[in-house]
Amino acid sequence: MREHGGPEVLELQDLERPSYEADELLIRVAAAGLNPVDTQVRSGDWVPDEMGEPPMVLGWDVAGMVEEAGDSTSGFAPGDRVFGMPRFPGLARADAEYVAAPASQIAPTPDSLSDEQAGALPLAGLTAWQALVDTAAVGEGDRVLIQAAAGGVGHLAVQIARARGAHMVGTASAAKHDFLRELGVDEPVDYSAGPVQEAVSEVDVVIDTVSEDDAGLLASLDTLREDGRLVVIAGDLTDPVKDAAARQGKRATEMLVHPDQAGLMALAALAEKRRLRVVIEESFPLERAAEAHERLESGRVSGKLLLTV
Ligand SMILES: NC(=O)c1ccc[n+]([C@@H]2O[C@H](COP(=O)([O-])OP(=O)(O)OC[C@H]3O[C@@H](n4cnc5c(N)ncnc54)[C@H](OP(=O)(O)O)[C@@H]3O)[C@@H](O)[C@H]2O)c1
């Protein structure tokens, strides 16, 4: 894209292949997942520091094949299938034929995942993993609420928490409750039927991937038992929400996903054990990226959207 704006600013352009450092891999991209952050950067709602001169290439999720491996990398060879979410929140420039990525932020793609599934997994999967495991330490018997359980992050979070032995509660519109049950949600909750805190209480952990204002986060806080943990994914953890959490004896944490090879390998291991399924609502060839952005911005996607190269 040459400027920020609506989906129409996205164009297909021929650029030089990216150069790569000694500790990096040059990856031939097969599939690149789409995430709300792509639409936020495209529209100018969030402009990364290193945006640089146009044209700018969006995209963080990548799956494909190692084309060349830098001299100081180890464990990777040309032809290996790999996936990852390099450099975030720095630019990865993944919506392209080739991506240069630090080898330390990339992992082998497991046999159980196609390139398409692996391309849709990294950013949403790492967000879910880092929220549930690294931040909230979800374990056996925890009662966990996922707000927006049908979305990109949510549908993976449900399965990860379920695999750790949690009892799952998840919000979505009623039409998606069968989908939630298939993912492993024990108690689907229709968020349009009334305030969530009237339908859900005494949970140990809430992962909130939808609330962008204090009212939504305070409602999530209300569903927690004393000493419960709220992880804020979509909005900002403001002082009023922090104060309310402290008054109620609950913990609230804001989280930003980061590149994480160990996390990728944990996701791959779950996929190998058939405990994690990546649901792709639709794949779009790179030249139809604008259409994919429009669909994502509807806010109604189940699972993930993908760009294929
Ligand atoms: N902090 C981080 O590091 C980080 C990382 C990744 C994503 N995020 C943020 O997390 C948010 C979610 O990302 P995503 O990729 O999961 O988005 P997404 O896939 O676009 O989410 C779409 C889903 O949200 C559901 N939804 C919409 N409004 C809802 C509501 N009020 N209650 C319950 N469900 C609702 C929709 O279900 P219905 O059709 O049933 O409404 C739909 O299935 C975004 O704001 C994104 O920017 C943050």
Number of helices: 10
Distance between the termini: 17 Å
Q: What would you call the structural class?
A: alpha/beta
Under CATH at level 1, the class of the largest domain stands as: Alpha Beta
Describe the overall structure:
With 309 residues, this protein is of the alpha/beta class. The protein has 2 domains: 7-121 and 278-308, Medium-chain alcohol dehydrogenases, catalytic domain (Quinone Oxidoreductase, Chain A, domain 1); 124-254, Rossmann fold. The protein contains 10 helices and 13 strands. It has helices at residues 36-43, 115-120, 122-135, 152-163, 177-183, 196-199, 214-222, 239-248, 261-272, 289-297, and strands at 24-34, 62-69, 81-84, 98-102, 106-108, 143-147, 167-172, 187-190, 203-208, 224-232, 251-254, 280-285, 304-308. The strands form 2 sheets. Strands 1, 2, 3, 4, 5, 12 and 13 form a 7-stranded mixed sheet that branches. α7 (214-222) links the parallel β9 and β10. The longest helix has 14 residues, at 122-135. The protein starts with 23 loop residues before the first strand and ends with a strand. It binds NADP nicotinamide-adenine-dinucleotide phosphate. NADP nicotinamide-adenine-dinucleotide phosphate is lined by residues 35-37, 123-124, 127, 147-148, 150-154, 171-173, 176, 191, 209-210, 233-234, 255-257, 296, 299-302.
